[in-house]
Amino acid sequence: MGESVMSGIPITIRNLGPEDVAILDRVRPGTFDNPVDPARAYAFLATRVNEIVVALTAGEVVGFATGTVLMHPDKAPQFFVNEVGVHEDMRRQGIGTRLMERLLDLARDRGCEGIWLATEEGNAAARGLYKAMQARETGGIVVYDWDDTAL
After folding, report:
1. 76 touches 113 (CB < 8 A)
2. Average of pLDDT values for 53-71?
3. Is the pLDDT at 7 greater than 80, yes or no?
């Protein structure tokens, strides 16, 4: 766990396992897109190809980053960053960077040789974060989805 003080508020960054699912009972409203479903959270945590890293203050989740190891029969594992979110009251304090750094470290520790994600073209905050972290922006990608995927 890494703890630091940001704007006078102590913030702890930690990754969760299935035994930590109760931590997701205390999420500041608006941090995730939707309320956390305990059964889905446990299933996510219990599937060991998934990772979630949270930012905690006073026992409350105020930020998170999730990702999944992608296995291939013909190449080394890759890591897909599913989502990064920081509560609007806690933004611009380096929390997103710390969450991503921890998630990237976990992916590399798992032997992943490629780490990637996608974001909306108009998401200036996310694009700024990834650019500041020296990510390479790739153009010319077309995204397809089925069944009304919420991107």
Report:
1. yes
2. 96
3. no
Strand extents, DSSP E, the chain: 2-6, 9-15, 50-57, 60-70, 78-86, 114-116
| Per-residue model confidence as pLDDT tens digits over 38-54 | 999 999 999 989 999 99
Asked whether the beta carbons of 2 and 13 are under 8 A apart, the reply is: yes
Q: Pick from 90, 41, 40, 82: which is nearest to 63 by CA?
A: 90
Long-range contacts of 91-96 (CB under 8 A, 24+ apart): 91/125, 93/6, 93/7, 93/11, 94/6, 95/6, 95/11, 95/13, 95/55, 95/62, 95/63, 96/63, 96/65, 96/129
* Residue 148 φ then ψ, to 5°: 55, 45
Q: Which two tokens stand for residue 52?
A: 């979630």
How far is residue 64's CA from residue 20's CA, in Å, rounded to a whole number?
A: 14
**Sheet with 9-15: strands ordered across:** 2-6, 9-15, 50-57, 60-70, 78-86, 114-116
Strand runs labelled E in 19-122:
50-57, 60-70, 78-86, 114-116
